Amino acid sequence: MVAKNDKDGPASEGPTLAMQRLILEKAPAVLARLITDSEYLQKSAYDCDAVKILTKLLKRAYQPVPSFDQPKYWSPQADAAVEAESSSASAQLGGRGQNPVLAHRIKLREASLKAIGALSAGKEDYRKALVAEDLVPYVVESLCEWPRKPRQAKERSKDRPSGEPARKGPSPAYGTNPVSVIIAGCHVVRMLARSVSILRTSMVDYAVSLPSPSPAYGTTPVSVIIAGCHVVRMLARSVSILRTSMVDYAVSLPIFHFLTHGDVNVQIAATATMINLVVEVSPVRELLTEKGVMRILCDHAHSDNPALRLNALWALKHFVDAVGPELKKASLEQLEPGWLVRLICDDSQKAAFHDSRFKGSADDDLDEEMDMQPSDQPFRWLYGSNGSIRELDVSRSSRLRQAEDRLSAIRETELNPVRRARNDDVAIQEQGLDFIRNLIGRPESGASSETPSETTEMIDFLFSELGQDRLFEIMEAKLRTKPLHPFSRRTSAPGREPPRVLHPQARIIVAVIYILVHMAASIPRHRQLVIAQTDLLRLLAQQAGSKDREVRVALCHLVINLTWQEDEAEAQQCAARASELKRLGFHTKMETLRHQDRDLDVRERAKTAAWQIDQATY
């Protein structure tokens, strides 16, 4: 449909042209929603030449718009010129108004960027194919409020600040990009930055200054900026793109400027893009560090907006990975240890949310909100046959019933405010725990109690800043089931069913385990600290039968690290740790996983864990 309508329409305005423009403005956005998070549909779109069609559409959106002629006075004669009889302001025609072609082009930018961002979230081949179509210059201009003609890398001078005059206003030919376009552009940058090669080339060589409007291109609205951010975010997933195209066009600089944009939606999109631009393999990481990205991300982590807070914490998690201890310590100090603990421990936030939303009604408690009935409007499954519309009978199809159940679950997740708030809390907790994990860092070879490593230093620093006992208490609390509003009058009445409980999320369990894995990979003193947490380990042993593969793999890693013997001097301590693990039931759990788990990786790691326990207690 997009390819069919992507052609020059009639010279004059009319219903046909209006319909053609509407299709081009809406179809890519619909395509983006369809293929998001669907590998099958992404491949289908790719096989149908979506890369060429969408890039052609984006390039079409940046064709300069002809000047908008001043409206003329009406005359009954076709060629007669009419002179103004008065020069007063009241006798003059008003402004030229909005150029309909330019307005269409701006909407086209946002729609095409959204579709490109959704497609580039898929495989590496999709991102490379998009960059091969000379996409990046157009994404870069989408990150500018006042775009100009997109230029190739060879057309840009190395000394950009002196090579291009500052932009101080919109261009009539290109207009103004709204915030939505800039956000979409940021998302594209984030996806492209997943490719290290693109990040290290196309996104660095061409710095993009904050421009001014051009009459030929207009002003980029917020919607276009957001769409551009999304495209960058998706393309940044490609390591090769991250090291090539993202470097060539220095897209990191406009993204960095958008971190402090006046519109919070642009800040959210830019912060999400930073998640893929501050990773260890990113060539723009040092540049962003020099610009002060860590301070801005820490400030955003204190935001009242949950989406901005989540993205900032996520980006900080990537930022502290593989940096030196001094920068890690500075990040924690800037974020504030007390605030980090508050983000991870959401009990007070849940209480505040509950009091504000449900105060004054004994029945409108959290349990009742969780039992909220779905919409009364039934699903209708329609199809066309021989020119007539027919409706399928759901009762005769188990597949349709499964589809309805799935749609109901999605609706519940998206519309239930309590569930949405809880999902936001869980996501922020996960990133906060992963931030602690990356602060500890990966263990270094050759480290010992005599020559402590950076990992050892950071563990001790965390204990001093967060409190050793407090940190273990937090992790233990994350593994316990929690009753949902246990003091509700509805659930405490005689004869009523017991209150429902909230089980720990698998991703939270994995985050907690890997913090312990990193601690156990340090010096013997830290392994002894971990094995001393009996209640915590007892809760972890219950997770050996988890349905989530990552939980089982992480548990195997923990047992392997706790039964690791650094040297002969640690033999007695290692045997004591292995005996304690055996007493807590870990040996039996590992043997069960070794023989019965369906995943080969889990079986092999459980085999190693069980063998090390046997060797230490032999």
Automatic annotation (TrEMBL):
<keyword id="KW-0963">Cytoplasm</keyword>
<keyword id="KW-0539">Nucleus</keyword>
<dbReference type="GO" id="GO:0005737">
    <property type="term" value="C:cytoplasm"/>
</dbReference>
<dbReference type="GO" id="GO:0005634">
    <property type="term" value="C:nucleus"/>
</dbReference>
<dbReference type="GO" id="GO:0043161">
    <property type="term" value="P:proteasome-mediated ubiquitin-dependent protein catabolic process"/>
</dbReference>
<dbReference type="InterPro" id="IPR011989">
    <property type="entry name" value="ARM-like"/>
</dbReference>
<dbReference type="InterPro" id="IPR038739">
    <property type="entry name" value="ARMC8/Vid28"/>
</dbReference>
<dbReference type="InterPro" id="IPR016024">
    <property type="entry name" value="ARM-type_fold"/>
</dbReference>
<feature type="region of interest" description="Disordered">
    <location>
        <begin position="149"/>
        <end position="173"/>
    </location>
</feature>
<dbReference type="GO" id="GO:0034657">
    <property type="term" value="C:GID complex"/>
</dbReference>
<keyword id="KW-0677">Repeat</keyword>
<feature type="compositionally biased region" description="Basic and acidic residues">
    <location>
        <begin position="149"/>
        <end position="167"/>
    </location>
</feature>
<protein>
    <submittedName>
        <fullName>Armadillo repeat protein</fullName>
    </submittedName>
</protein>
